[in-house]
Amino acid sequence: MYTKKFKFTKTNLYDYDKFGDDDGYDKFEDDDGYGKFGDDDVYTVEEFIECCKNGSFIDDDGWGYPVKDMKADRGVLIYPSIIHLIPEDATHIVWFNK
After folding, report:
1. Beta carbons of 60 and 96 less than 8 angstroms apart
2. pTM of the model
């Protein structure tokens, strides 16, 4: 059940291009990698899946909750190894690094 409200102004704050990808492309050229103070670390489902598939997030890094309508379902834990279990109605994932 989606009940816990989260706050964010933009998604995908993890810029993996800044960590050794030598393709010469930084998709957040004007971004320091951080959102506004107090924002949660939130990704669209598509962004989160991409971060998991490219190895940016692994199970040892932390866990997430599915989000819909700016509310998270804290009864469903999401790990990178089980992205196939993300609920179909989820629009975002709020991520918690260890």
Report:
1. no
2. 0.70
